Amino acid sequence: MKFGSFLLMAAALNLANAAREVIRPKADKETTSEELKPWLRTIYSTKAEIVTPTVIAGVTFSAKPAATPDPLEPWVSLNKDGSPKTIKPELKNGRTKNPHPEYSTYFQTASVRTFSYEELKAHNMDPNDVYEEEVFIDEDKTYVSLNPIIRCTPERYFMKGSANDISSQPFCTPRENTSWKVGKTYFVSWFTRFFEDEFSGEVVENVRVHLSYVKEKASEKGFHKRDIPATFFSSEWLKNVDGMYGIEIDGDWLQGQYERKIVVSVQPSNIPDEEFNPLENGVLLYMIQGSKVSKYSKEELALQDAGISNDKWYYVALSIPTMVIFALVCIYFFLHYNGKYRDFSDVTQAALGKRHRVLGEVSKMKKFRKMKNHKYSELPSYNEKSSKQH
Questions:
Q1: What are the residue ranges of helices labelled H in 338-390?
Q2: Where is this region: Disordered (predicted)?
Q3: How many CB atoms lie within 10 A of CB 41?
Q4: Taking a C-beta distance cutoff of 8 angstroms, is the pair 268, 207 a contact?
Q5: Where are the domains of the chain?
């Protein structure tokens, strides 16, 4: 399988209750500074093959490998939303920083091999002994080796759901509640061995990627009561071994809105359309027009600081008058019922007593404004002789 199958998609379909129709891919218009040319290789020892490189979102698939492997050759990782980013390994203190990813035994097949005494001739075996050894058979890397993007493995799963307690299997990207912007390309990646036939135990050969609208009521946000009115995009049947698919977001999919919530799902070929449920293992995210620039009032900023967003503040605003009216009614009935038990005579007398207090300077009072001030020596009670005796 060549990675030319990662071509971008352009048309959008409404497939609510009808059979899903394959979306025909369009050629990638992205170019590189170096012209990509087909190259020739020999596969499976004797089979000649012409390989044509393909560029998607700036990532070159099926490029001709270097004659000598370079451990410092750049490779491509994926951001949380599935957008690609180039990683450049570095050699520091004799160790490689950001090396190419290793996949352990995730893409190998475990097998038990049995050896008899005649085959091994081990000095510590009896002639009737049998030795069993677990071996791992590597996958066919004829085509997966041409993929420069990191592959999805269970160790790269994330937690999703309102409580972050549900595994994202089989997805590694995109992460839940991330945003896809119109005009950009994102990669959906999944663990290929997740899709096994329950009867044969073999990994499913073909899969399809679906994008579906998710309808949520305001009162149901954050819960699992969701309805899927339509699957608006379906890919062609893909080779499951690739484990990823590039999608360019079409503005027509928003249907005139700035933002739509969607679910990304992968359908294996062993599950019929009528039995496939996109929400069973799907990932919820947002599809948006682009960066939105707007000015917020002081009230809106205060609501954001309080953690109130979207339409939640409407419910808060509506609840405030109701609470005030209810409180006033309760106070009225309380005062009316307890009126005969109230006695404010002590309070009244205390208030009247306060009226006789003299506040402020005496000289500023109207009654004493014309009074002339005298020195202490001029007062009638002053006696100069008696004062000297003391």
A1: 345-354, 384-389
A2: 72-103
A3: 13
A4: yes
A5: 3-288
Predicted structure pTM score: 0.65
pLDDT digits (tens, 9 = 90+) for 273-314: 999 999 999 999 999 997 654 555 555 555 555 555 455 555
Helix, strand, coil percentages in the chain from 3-state DSSP, rounded to 5 = 25, 25, 50
Q: Residue holding tokens 């605003």?
A: 317
- The helix (run of H) or strand (run of E) holding residue 118 is helix 117-120
Give the separation between CA 111 and CA 132, rounded to whole angstroms. 10
Q: Of 27-31, 36-40, 45-49, where does mean pLDDT reach its minimum? A: 27-31
CA distance 174 to 264: 9
| Of residues 199, 192, 181, 149, the one with CA closest to residue 248 | 181
Mind giving me the DSSP string for 126-162? Answer: -TT-EEEEEEEEPP--TTGGG--BPPP-GGG--EETT
d(C-alpha 158, C-alpha 146), whole Å: 26
- Cα separations (Å) of 82 from 149, 181, 190, 245? 11, 11, 11, 10
Burial class of residue 179, CB neighbours in 10 A (0-12, 13-18, 19+): middle
CB 288 within 8 A of CB 180: yes
Task: Over range 308-336, report the average pLDDT.
Answer: 69
